[in-house]
Input
Amino acid sequence: MSKLRPRLIIEVGSWKGRSAINMATACKSLGLETEIVCVDTWLGPPGIYTRKNDPFYASLGHKFGYPQLYYTFLTNVVRARHQDMITPLPLRSALAAEVLREMRVKAPLIYIDAAHDYDSVLCDLRSYWNLLTDDGVLFGDDYVGWPGVTKAANEFAGSVGRPIFAATGKFVIPKNPHFPLKVAFS
Output
């Protein structure tokens, strides 16, 4: 981040806000005035509703049948004192991409960490690729740990003719084919 110095980051999939908060903390420590737009429904993944004994289901904190995860996210952002940098966009990822495209938003950093099945990840990569600036970087989480994420990221990078860099569960796909690897992981 110190070399890219982004003024805008789009995060697709925010859950309770840990990644967004970490990015905001890093940006503030570098003296950057960055906005982080967090795209999520805060309703949880569809399969979670059939696994009521799953700890992730409990973390949705249903109240009168409605998940309270959005309020957990907001509470975490406010506690971290990053409400000045983090903007929630409570929409499905594909719909948010359409809205951002209509607004002509372009970002140098887009972080993909929403659904983890192959089809959803591939859809997110395709939907957000054109929202990257020409020197932008698409990066994501759970590479290798989730086979659908790994397969979608590899296939997508190949389809756009870009290299994919991966380390410690993260992947990076630069829009610029001459993107220096050392920038991706510094």
Observations:
- The chain has one domain: 8-184.
